[in-house]
């Protein structure tokens, strides 16, 4: 019996060992360094306790807006990508749509590009004077809609979120399509015989059966949103000013200027925020499944 219980662990031992050595232990060491004054300008490291955490969460801290930006970005992009991905998945599984696989491929194709490449392409397209978008709007008589998309404080965040949603919605669509195709058609046939319309089938059959898929999608979106760096860095580099800075861009800048302790402190805070949010998201989704 003991051999049978231990046998599956043999297959995971290699991956667990690598993860422990390359991720878990460095993560714990990083949290420990957040309580020190570790920097590039001295060979000595001194224990400073919660000094960095107090500096970050003090009333006049420059870092609090970065944490707020990260959470707001995560919430909005998670909702947008899930809703758009679900809508596209529902559309591209309907019988009246022709060339479904072609449309799926086109929508999914941005996912194979790196976030850095997407950010640089859109940065060029959204340039206020030479960018494709403003040029197109002016050429069709909609010049009043042209904006400084990446430098105007009123539109920079919606612009960044829209680009990120465009990049990630294809992956969500593919995952949801896989879930939709796993639902037995008999449910819909029985509901149709009882006179159920599309909305009733959606809310009483499709969405309840997709809850495990939507949970996984939400977790993936939240973990990415909290860790976002490439898209912000390539599009705005945290600008205009510091308006679009998030935790990871702040970490990058702290490490770049040699304040390693503050960088590890921000990374540790991001880790704890991620644990907190994911725990309650999973608990909330599990409770809904039990209630259903």
Provide mean pLDDT, rounded. Answer: 90
CATH homologous superfamily grouping: MetI-like
* Strand-residue proportion: under 5%
CATH class descriptor name: Mainly Alpha
Radius of gyration over C-alpha positions, nearest whole angstrom: 23 Å
Sheet with the most strands, sense and barrel status: none
Low-confidence stretches: none
Number of strands: 0
Q: Give the CA-CA distance, first to last residue.
A: 37 Å
Instruction: Provide the domain count.
Output: 1
Amount of helix: over 70%
The CATH topology, please? MetI-like fold
If you had to describe this structure to a student in words, what would you say it looks like?
The two termini are 37 Å apart. 71% of the residues lie in helices and 0% in strands. Helix 1 (2-33) crosses helix 13, helix 3 runs antiparallel to helix 10 and helix 12 packs antiparallel against helix 13 (260-291). It has one domain (63-291): MetI-like (MetI-like fold, Orthogonal Bundle), CATH 1.10.3720.10. It is globular, with a radius of gyration of 23 Å. The protein is mainly alpha-helical and 292 residues long. The protein has 13 helices and no strands. The model has no long low-confidence stretch (mean pLDDT 90).
